[in-house]
Every structure is written in structure tokens, then in C-alpha cells.
Amino acid sequence: SPLPSQGTGALFRIRLAGGSVPCTYLSPQDPRPLCHPAIDRALQLSGAGGPPHVKLTVEWDMSTKERLFGSIQEEAVQDAESVRRQQQAHGQQHSCTLDECFQLYTKEEQLAPDDAWRCPHCKVPQQGTVKLSLWTLPEILIIHLKRFRQVAEQRHKLTTLVRFPLRGLDMAPHVAQRGQPGGQLLGRWAPWQPPLRPPLGCPRDHLYDLYAVCNHHGSMQGGHYTAFCCNALDGRWYSYDDSRVEGVREAEVSTRSAYILFYQRRHA
After folding, report:
1. Partner of 208 for a Cys bridge, out of 63, 199, 236, 263, CB 3.0 to 4.6 A?
2. Residue 43 dihedral angles phi and psi, to the nearest 5°
3. Is the pTM of this model over 0.85?
4. How does pLDDT run across 35-54, given as a tens digit for each residue?
């Protein structure tokens, strides 16, 4: 939005702090001083940890500053209400489902122009796509959630709540379509390459039930591991924290600390 600019020419200068270009100054006389290439670059490099943002420093003329602010206490500036709302919204961490994680994991991605492949027919580089699919499923399905993310030189722990089912995890939507009757895989293959077929005797049961969860508490600097396990004899869930074992309700198994999930095929 436009900023008031009358009479501010000699009062202060606005400097972009932490920008890619040192000592980048914005002109208060511009009707829209934030419309600057340096601001665009800073927004792109703001990284994770909240909405895109920039930090601006106002450099006052000393005589003007002393005339306007009689004491250090008077220099304090109250944040606008929008700042509080933005901080509150960022503090409310979002959640997702395990099914959404698999959808993102197997999502088709567009290759960058630098990764173009040469078409064997027309010999022209083509910008293709890549897609990761699940071909077979094991008897024991171990899912490792990505809880740590590296941004520049720092690593942060991700505490997003991943909601996962305790019973009836259906992996069928995430398994690759193996082809038409007869074992032929859908798609075209080179004459020298035999079509892929699923292994003989591969089970078609895609339902899984959870039997254990490994939890991680803490951060990169220090943490602690606990576990939730389902007793195969009584069917109840228990919490294991070092030498302490106690029963837990099923509603307490899915938490933000879940790190590794252990599923077993239902009809194994």
C-alpha cells in the first residue's frame, strides 16, 4: 500500500536488512517504496519458518531522532494487530493424513529443463515427467516419517501432526497399475526390454493394521524415544518409556511425536 512520503526526505533512510546486496536502501519518496527488485529477492530467500517476510531498518538523522523521541521508552513501536494475527496463525500447526503423505510421495513431477531427455525417435530433447510408484507391498510395512528438515546450515524438526489409522490402512490406491490380463504392463517398452510382471504368488491384500509406533521427543540438539505397542494377546495398546510401561487409549496413539510406524498385513 502507498506510504506517506511528504517531508520524509531528510528524516530517515530505509535499509533492507539481510538482503543479498549489502546496504540496499529504499527511497521513502517513492509512492510504493517496497516495489523494489531487492525486496523480491529477499522474499524468495526468506526460507521456511513462517510466511515470506523482509526486515527493514529505519536509519534516522540523529538530530531529528533526538527531537522526536525524548527517551528510549518513547522509541518503542507497538505492533499492528495484523502482526499478532499472523503470529497466532503461524503458531497453529497444520495437520495431514498418512494417505496425503503417500499421494505427495507418488505425485508426478515435471522435470526441469536442465534434466531434459533425448527422444530416441525424433532425437530432440524433451522435458518429461517422473513418477514414483509402489510395485509390491511387504508383509511388514515400516513407514519412516520425515521429521527433520535442513534449511541452509540449520536443521529443524517438523512437528506436523500426521493422522494415521490404527486399522485398515488401504495401500491399494498407491500401488502401481500392473497392467492388463496376462501380466503385460500398461505402456510401451523397447523391443529388447521384457515387460515387467509382478512376482509369482504376490498377495493382493492391501489392508494393513498398525501394531507399533516409535516416537521422538525433543529436537536435534537432544531428544528421547518412546514407543506405543499393541499387545498381541489382549489387543490393548501400551506406552513404553524406558522401564515405565502403562496402558494407553487408542485415541492417544496418534501424536505429533510419531516418527516410525509399523504396520502388518491384515491376512499375513
Report:
1. 263
2. -65, -40
3. no
4. 777 787 777 776 555 567 77
Of 219, 48, 53, 50, the closest CA to residue 150 belongs to 48
Question: Nearest CA to 211 among 128, 268, 127?
Answer: 268
Q: Looking at the structure, do residues 34 and 102 belong to the same domain, yes or no?
A: no
Q: Which three cell numbers stand for residue 48?
A: 521456511
Does residue 185 lie in a domain region?
no
Look up residue 71 and give its amino acid: S
The residue with greater pLDDT, 232 or 201, is 232
For 74, half-sphere exposure in the C-beta direction (CA atoms, 13 angstrom radius) is 7
The amino acid at residue 129 is T
Count of other CB atoms within 10 angstroms of residue 96: 13
List all residues 6 or more positions away from 258 whose beta carbon is below 8 Å from its beta carbon: 145, 162, 164, 213, 214, 215
Can you give the residue range of the structural domain that contains 149? 95-107+135-175+205-265
Pairs from 195-199 (Cβ < 8 Å, separation ≥ 24): 196/135, 198/135, 198/136, 199/136
Query: Is there a single domain that holds both residue 149 and residue 227?
Result: yes
Residue 178 has pLDDT above 70, yes or no: no
Decide: 253 and 139 in contact? Cβ < 8 Å.
Answer: no
Model confidence pLDDT, tens digit, residues 12-43: 778 887 655 566 788 767 778 777 777 877 77
Q: Count how many residues are written for the chain.
A: 268
Q: What percent of the chain has pLDDT over 70?
A: 75
Q: Where are the beta strands (DSSP E) in the chain?
A: 12-17, 24-26, 55-60, 95-97, 109-110, 117-118, 125-126, 129-130, 140-144, 148-151, 154-157, 161-163, 169-170, 207-218, 223-230, 237-241, 244-248, 258-265
